[in-house]
Amino acid sequence: MKFAKTILTIALTSLAFMAMAGDIKPFSQQEFDQLTKAGKPVVLDISAPWCPTCKEQKPIIDGLMKQPAYKDVTLLTIDFDSAKPTLKQFKVAMQSTLVAFKGEKEVGRSVGDTTPAGLEGLIKKTVN
Question: The pTM is what?
Answer without folding.
Answer: 0.84
